[in-house]
Structures are given as structure tokens and as C-alpha cells.
Amino acid sequence: MSGCVREWMDRIPLPALAAARYPGLEVFLQWATANRLRVAALSDYNPADKIAALGLARYFSAIVHAQETDVGVFKPNPKGLKIAQRRLDAQSHEVLYIGDRPEVDGATAVAGGVAGMIVSPKLVQCPPGVEWASDWMQVRKLVEARVMNIPRGVHA
Predict the structure, then answer these.
(1) CA distance linking residue 153 with residue 109, whole number of Å
(2) CATH number for position 25
(3) Comparing C-alpha atoms, which of 124, 82, 80 is closest to residue 106?
């Protein structure tokens, strides 16, 4: 990517991102952190600067993206998901992949053999085994129910 394109696509929009943050996302991340749940970001492009601009970097234990040499493939290929899982030292049954696009993020969860959830204010059709949540408060309720059902000795 040329310097000019990178500047206009990656750097200039950063100050505007905080205003576009999903309502309830930070509250969810605060809750997850308080409950010792590890959180990773998985993206096709490096999201580190965007996560920092959103003021959310402190909540992420790992950031994985397709541009890394270890990954090298876009979603829905599950390779990045498996690398994130390994960086979190998590087993497949402990992972919940949350995204906003059923055709990409839902498919990534299915291909990676983990539970999936799509967050969208409008009802969307999700692949089998992937749940839909209308907002981050509903995500929290669904995650709470999952965490309470994890056998003793296993930590999410």
C-alpha cells in the first residue's frame, strides 16, 4: 500500500473512530476483564491502531490479523482464529468468536470449530451453531450463561 493511500485509509480516519464505537462495547469489555475472560481481536487487516483510537487496547490479550506472516489468509479461513486461540492458551470449547458479519465471521467460527455469535441490531440469518445478539448487553447475558456452564477447573 502506498504511503498516500495508507495515510488516507489508515491514519486520517482514526480520530473519528471513537464516535463510531458500538454502544455497550466498552461496558462488555470491562465486564469481561473483571471476570478474567481473555479477549482477542481477529481482523483481515492490522486493527491495532483502530483499537487504540477507540480507547480499548487495554482489554485485548491478543491481536491477530491476516497480514501477519504466521496467518497469511483472510477470514473465513480459520487459521487466524486458531492462532488467536493458541495465543490465548484456550481450548476450542472455551472460545466464543464474536463478529458482525454472518457470512464471514459466522463462517470463521464454524470452520474453526468454535462457538460463534453475530452482533447486529437487525436480525440476521446465522450459520448453524452461530447465535445472534442484537447488542452488547445481550452478548454479555449470553456469555454469562456460557461461563456459568463451564465445568469446574476450566476457565474461559
Answers:
(1) 24
(2) 3.40.50.1000
(3) 124
Per DSSP, the three-state class of 138 is helix
Does some domain include residue 156?
no
Q: What is the largest CA-CA distance in the chain?
A: 53
Give the chain's domain count.
Answer: 1
Q: Which residues contact 101 (CB under 8 A, 6 or more apart)?
A: 118
- Residue that has been written with the C-alpha cell 461461563 in this structure: 147
Q: Based on C-alpha coordinates, what's the Rg of the chain?
A: 16
Cβ pair 96, 102 in contact under 8 A: no
Please tell me the pTM assigned to this model.
0.87
User: pLDDT, tens digit, for every residue of 95-139?
Assistant: 999 999 999 999 999 999 999 999 999 999 999 999 999 999 999
Containing domain of residue 124, as a range? Answer: 3-148
44: which residues sit within 8 A by CB, 6+ positions away? 65, 66, 67, 74, 75
